[in-house]
């Protein structure tokens, strides 16, 4: 019998991160070059204590706020 999100969180004393797979929407990972990405609600990179959406590489776990992921300078 499948567990609900709430039952899972209570059983394992954790919060599940709900992610959206975003292959093709964002530039590939600048570290490993893969394009299998998720968007997760993570703690703010700016130290505000709030959370914000981050693009996360499902291959190497690199992440950055959505508004920063696309901002890259060419060499």
What does this structure look like?
The protein is an alpha+beta fold. The chain is built from two helices and four strands, in the order αββββα. It has a four-stranded antiparallel sheet with strand order 1-2-3-4. The relative contact order is 0.20.
Low-confidence stretches: none
Q: How many DSSP helices?
A: 2
Spatial strand order of the main sheet: 1-2-3-4
Percent of residues in helices comes to: 10-25%
From the spread of the alpha carbons, the general shape counts as globular
Arithmetic mean of pLDDT: 79
Sheet having the most strands = 4 strands, antiparallel
Query: β content, as a range?
Result: 25-35%
Distance between the termini: 53 Å
Order of helices and strands: HEEEEH
Class per helix and strand makeup: alpha+beta
Total number of beta strands: 4
From the alpha carbons, calculate the radius of gyration and give it in angstroms: 15 Å
Short characterization:
The chain is α+β, with helices and mostly antiparallel strands and 75 residues long.
